[in-house]
C-alpha cells in the first residue's frame, strides 16, 4: 500500500491531473484545422503531423518541425497550392513592377520608374508615383499605381527599404515584438501600421478609386520586395476590403512577417492569392524572429515559393505551410546577397539610377 501511494504521489507531482484532462480533450480533434490553437485548461492544443497525425496538448509531445500551433499554418494540398503560381508572371512582369516601385525616391532621377516599366511587353499606363514622409524614422515611403491593360489588372507596388534609418527602425521594432491593432482586424507590426496610415494620408484611396472607377472590370495586384513586400501584404487586405467584388492577388518577395494569426485569417478570407517568394539563405523573411509559441507574434501568410540559392527557372518548391522548418529556414548559412539578388536582378535599393535590366 505504501508503495502504491508513493507511485501515485510521484505521478501526480510529475504529471498533474490537468495534463491528463487536456490530453483527453485535445485528442478529441481529428484534423489540424480543428486542433491547432484550441485552448484546454489554459494550454494550447497542437497538431502533430509526424506519422498519422494527432492532437496533443504539449510542445514536448511533438517534434517542433512537425508541430502546428496556428490553424492558418496547417499543411496545404500541394497540388492546389501550386496550381495558381505563375513563375513567368513573376520573372517577366512582377519583377519590373517592383523595380519601378523601388525607384520612387528623391534619390532616383526623374523618369526612373518608367525606365523599368518600359521593359514590359504589355500595354500599360503609369498612374501615380508617390513619395511621402514617414514620421517614425524621419525618412520616406514610396509606391506606384499603374494599370496593365493586357492583363487587366491595377497594380499597387511598394518600395523596399532604401536608407539605414529605415533598416534600424524596423530592426528595433522587430526586437520589441511590437504589434499594434490593425483597423481591419488582428494586429500587425507597429512599423507597418505607421506606414499604412502614412500612405493612406497621402491620398492612396482617392488615387486607387479613380483608377478602379475608370476600369471597373480590372482586378488588383499588390506587390513589393522586403519592406515593400510586407506593405504589399497589408495593402492587399485593404484593397480586398475596399473592393470585395474584385480579385486581389499578392506577390511578396523576401518580405518579413506582417501580422498575427487573426490578420492572416482575414487575408485567407479576402485575398484570392498570396504568394511569398523566398530565396535560400535570406534572413529577412525570418523577421520578426519567432521566439515563442505562446506570446503574441507575427506569423507568415499565404503560400511560400522557396527557391534554392541559384533561383534557376523551375527550381522552386511550393511549401505546404506558411511557417515551415523545411522551407524558409533553408540552409544554415545566411547572406545579404540572398536578399538583394532575386531572379538574377539586383534589388539593392540605394541611390538607384535608370533601370537597365535586360529585356
UniProtKB/TrEMBL annotation:
Spans through the membrane: none
Signal sequence residues: 1-21
Residue span(s) of domain Fungal lipase-type: 156-290
A family per Pfam: Lipase_3
Family matches, as InterPro entries: AB_hydrolase_fold, Fungal_lipase-type
Record has Signal as a keyword: yes
GO terms for biological process, alphabetical: lipid metabolic process
Keywords from the named record: Signal
PANTHER family in UniProt: FUNGAL LIPASE-LIKE DOMAIN-CONTAINING PROTEIN, PROTEIN CBG11750-RELATED
Protein name: Fungal lipase-type domain-containing protein
